[in-house]
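Annex B. Sample input.
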Amino acid sequence: MTHNNSNGGPDSSAAGPEWPAGFRAYTGHGGLRADGDDISIVVSERPAVSAAMFTTSLFAGPAVVLSRAHAAGRKLRAVVTLAQNANVATGRQGADHAAEVVGRVAGLVDIPADEVLIGSTGVIGRPLPMDTIRAHFDAAGRRGTGAFTAAPQAVARAMMTTDTRPKTAVRTVGGARITGVAKGVGMLEPNMATMLAYVFTDADVPADELDEALRAAVDRTFNCLSVDTDTSTSDTVAVIANGAAGPVDRAEFAAALADLCLDLTLQLASDGEGATKLLRVTVGGARDAAQAKRIAKSVVNSPLVKTAVHGADPNWGRVLMAIGKNTGERDIVPERVTVAFGGTEVYPAEPTGETLAKLTEELRASEVEITVGLGIGGGTATVFGCDLSAGYVRINADYTT
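Annex B, continued. Sample output.
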């Protein structure tokens, strides 16, 4: 298995990733934002199998409701994304608009409507500007599928809302390629899925195994991510496999998919709204993995921990607070708990002034790691997030104005 990402990291390729065999993409400006591409479509030229997961929000938007129904058939071939408008809390009109967009895309790429997944992301409570969207699809129809020349980087950019950079990743397994695109930097505390993340592969993988691999990957990656504790109404993650490259080793494919999802997860965490640092929290010695994840999420979601990380303040008391507020976890005993920043234990040890100065310097890095030991059992989990800065407040205070 080989891999690289295309988002400016050490493995990035100047040309960016490519689509797997048999996939094509389109981006264009549909009037959802003032300028720049805001509509994207990715389609497989051949039949495919798919798996998808969606938000558990009670206010799931029409795009999620419609896509859930289509995803149940496990034969999705295309994904259309509308950026800057979530089309949520828009009533019957919103559902009709989502269905119309799907129908137009299906006609454009000549596939059944129930093989199209739709994602819609942005402001909640505003209807889609259908006049401009219709005009856009009318023009796209006149150009035909010859306009489907967009690269993954262009699709990821067209999906952005408050993101500061597009997020893409690619892995290879045998002769097959796996390419992923994602967006999301706020309203991000996944339940069942997260933000918008789409994965496309030319590997030949049976639908049930694809679903199993996706759920396992999401559980260890996207569902271990949190920026601000808020679950979006529009979260969707999906994988489409068209089999053009033939069969691959199933275990290697599952590992590559999980690795790609982790890559995208880290990109999302480090680009959290207002973020200046990636925060990684690992909890070990738990009763089981579920308990470890709960405690780790409690730490990574704490505003006091996040602000301490932002200020490079090695205040381990805030970590203890974040653990201790889980009053239902009766098997956590303070005398057995350990806390470390980086590789330096701060509790129950008593750091010297020299150690504190070193820790402060380490906390100024772009990535910060907090490790907690519970001293109960063998459960472990790692979750990902970011610091909390004044930038987050400014972005969200002014979001719709």
